[in-house]
């Protein structure tokens, strides 16, 4: 920026800027450079990934100021400007507008998106060709020049779909995705009979000019975009293209040695050349994304060996002559990219060593006084005076991500992708389910496979190498576990003999292989089975060194044999095959069809497995094993049901009128005793806490014989018109007004009796000048045809989950609905305006537009003219952004009217089973969805715009009550008080009668001050040292004003704590129980929940939330809690329902409170394995009991914590608990902390003494943080 800005690149030797060449035919420069701040735009998202948020925002403003538009007289390559400039703009726009990631800038106003639109429009003329394949170059100001060449490459034509597709999704304009998709399909349709894609072709005729097929320059990224297009857009046609092309490459391009990919004739498969190029080094990273980890490992080893030979990667390497063909190295990132993906997939520190080697080589041979220079010759290490923009955009970015294990993008659970230029595309929330253009998908019902089982290789390897006796040896079992667990040891990815074979193929002798001799292997290593692990560096003065795991440990490794890698095992992925359940005729002997489904097992359990009975490995394997079944429910012969399935999304999952012809994917963990529906019709996904509801009459043939015959005898053939009767209820002036509404012929429908509630939010025509001083007029409401209005409304967080009001006219109803759905709305309501000169009470039909290919899934209604005018006059004005702004809102309920002949019947749950196991999330009800109460409009606040995890701040965390602050032993301690002469002052004071506390509660007030120490000790000590197991109660107020009580842990002293503090604080219900871990001081009190559920004395059931590990311990301790049939006769047991969460994956309580489980360490199970506990984060409140370490990986998620409860066993350190100094240090690690509370004390801690020590802590005074030792009964206001 100091030496080259605003020019396109840096000259690292001259320390000056570089821009386009005056010679228009200098394609080497002008294909990329265009006087548009190339390097700055290309590296925008790199600043965000590196954590420089201020620099990221500053760079965006520099781009906005320096590049007002792309009306530039520059002839550029369409491919290069798309991946570098268009991708850079879109990536930065996605990051700066996404409130979830920490890069949000509220002052940003879509300027980068507008630049992207301008650039996209200037690239569109390139697609005006007879084939649809774009011209390779275009002039940004003049369009396509008349003398433009028609020769292009497959990658240049096919590697546009991510950038152009994302531009369509962000703008609502499908043209960009349409042209890029057509270009990709045109190239794909020209593949050879072998399924191979050539290098270059004539874009006017479509004829191939170069028929060489391989994975390097000219064709590389088209394979990449096949797979990434599927990942990002969830489009199976891209997956189809990738799977077919990947199979063809493995068949014809990959050499039998598995590590080399050759250049072959696309028509015959014959070898054409003897070189590989540097761009092909991206391939192992793509293999990782495809799930072919083992293929990635061996191909990466070959490519890294080339790097090790030259300490750089030549543009071309002749594997026959074992010498560079083109010796230059322009700082390319592809090998580093693959190294990063392999480390993310395997967590094998070997790849950190690889990254260190590459980093040191670049630093040694490419660094200059003012930057980094490419090498013109890797043999002589002669520098070239050019630093291409991808060095910052990709090379350094992937290196940084490799070592920054705590980076947010290394933990992000999303279908984000890196483009071929390394730009990160994180789909915004409103985009995830959008599919602007539906693919013409062939039958891909067998295309979805189970996750590849990595352990099969190791098991077969062991079968080939050892007999059963050897496998049973302790050392070998530990070795197997070691490989499977992938601990922090450096494990050679391949046997040494394979590595030596690759070394020989590249031309590296064992003597000159300094990487393995000095970094990985000790001098006495003689086999590939037992390897010492050396340190990653002789010095630790690197900034990233502390981020690396401990590499000094020893371990053992058995890996793969080449014969094994070359086996058919890669073909053993078990695909889910669609199955139509064949039901016998009614009355046949086999009547199992009434249980709903026939058992079908797609897994092959006949494979030979080493004898590891009773080992930890077997348990680990079973724990992670999944049974997946795909089946289609069909009507048996003799049964009739006239309705087609209508599946509608709801807040709790999906609802449907029938399961007839519905395809279900069922999943069951081996350790579960139930199945879960995970997919409906191969596209609708159910999360673990969601349900599919179906009407009883819609599955009547699956009921018992008596019920199904009763339904069949009624010959019910419902009138389809009954499904089109809709009522809209609006809360106007404290009254419920009902209006009839017309239903669109597209989108979803409501079942009779089904109710969907939400807020109606008007889309305004002028979102930049919102005026709520007067009531809405007709012209204030937008037509809903432009994406811009939706983008501005989405910034206010007012679309997702709401009904959106638009005006009739200008564009098709389906276009309006598509935009509403794209931005996350649950429904569209259209004002019936323009009918005032006709029948004002008439509603016209919103017909389905012919040729409109996108399948819409939201609700769509239209009001008549009279009702529209009433609605406009009665919108409420609600405060937004903490009273600095107001907006319009109106509560609405959409109700599917019930047919008069079939009134609603109260809900009745029926359990369907599959293979003798219940389907847990399939709910059969007698009526439709039970109606919900109308709730008032509540608009978002400023805080939860910045961070969607804080959206529940619009509701309220009220208070937290400490039900227990002791250990599993409690205080007082029996060993102290049973002495002849007790001396433990803490236990003595804890056994004295409770002091009468002033006021009605024990609220946290600053009652400790230095001037009254003696008084405090004499008067406030009683009772505060009496401690039960560590527990707490969080109180939370929902949107509708209802208060919920959330119990965190129920230890063995829970019931006594409840007897004391529930009446004191006027508590009664327990609405949820969160369990932190499977120790008795956390769950043994669950049995006492019978006091709440016995005969419905307080409530019918208690919901319990825990992870699978804790559930198993509870199941062993209280089998009757999990299965009431295991209780003894006559005994009343607690009625509880278990729900499971996964560590590090947030979940919702009561459909609105976000709970974030945080994985923390609570001692060790054994010498090498930690025991993990779960802490919980609720908005800006953090609760962490029973812990001795909070991993750094969790720190980013805790930055906004303002109040924290932290474990503190005593004043000394402990193996499984924080001590005083550690607890204090943990509190101060929260950057925004305001107050903290210690809990979990042993009897060696006097509560008053600890508080007096805390008062005098200088570190707390300097930060103005208030920390106190908690006590049983303390209530803190949140």
Topology overview:
Blueprint: E1 9-11, E2 16-18, H1 27-30, H2 38-42, H3 44-49, H4 53-66, E3 75-77, H5 78-97, H6 111-123, E4 137-139, E5 151-153, H7 154-158, H8 161-171, H9 175-189, E6 200-202, E7 208-210, E8 212-213, H10 220-233, H11 236-253, E9 263-265, E10 271-273, E11 275-277, H12 283-289, H13 293-310, E12 316-318, E13 323-326, H14 334-346, H15 350-365, E14 375-377, E15 382-383, H16 390-403, E16 417-418, E17 424-425, H17 455-465, H18 468-471, H19 474-485, H20 496-506, H21 514-520, E18 530-531, E19 555-556, H22 562-565, H23 616-624, E20 626-632, E21 647-650, E22 653-656, E23 663-669, E24 676-680, E25 684-685, E26 691-695, H24 705-714, E27 726-732, E28 735-743, E29 755-762, H25 787-795, E30 803-807, H26 813-822, E31 827-831, E32 859-862, H27 865-873, E33 876-880, E34 885-896, E35 913-914, E36 917-918, E37 922-925, H28 942-946, E38 956-964, H29 974-977, H30 985-990, H31 1013-1019, E39 1031-1037, E40 1043-1048, H32 1054-1064, E41 1072-1074, H33 1080-1083, H34 1090-1093, E42 1102-1106, H35 1108-1117, H36 1119-1122, E43 1136-1140, E44 1147-1149, ...
Parallel strand pairs: 22-26, 26-37, 29-30, 30-31, 31-32, 40-41, 41-42, 42-43, 47-48, 48-49, 49-50
Antiparallel strand pairs: 1-2, 3-4, 5-6, 6-7, 8-9, 9-10, 11-12, 12-13, 14-15, 16-17, 18-19, 20-23, 21-22, 23-24, 24-25, 27-28, 27-34, 28-32, 29-34, 33-34, 35-36, 38-39, 38-51, 39-40, 44-45, 45-46, 46-47
Pfam family, one: Lactamase_B_2
Domain Metallo-beta-lactamase: 1045-1224
Keywords: Calcium, Endoplasmic reticulum, Glycoprotein, Glycosidase, Hydrolase, Metal-binding
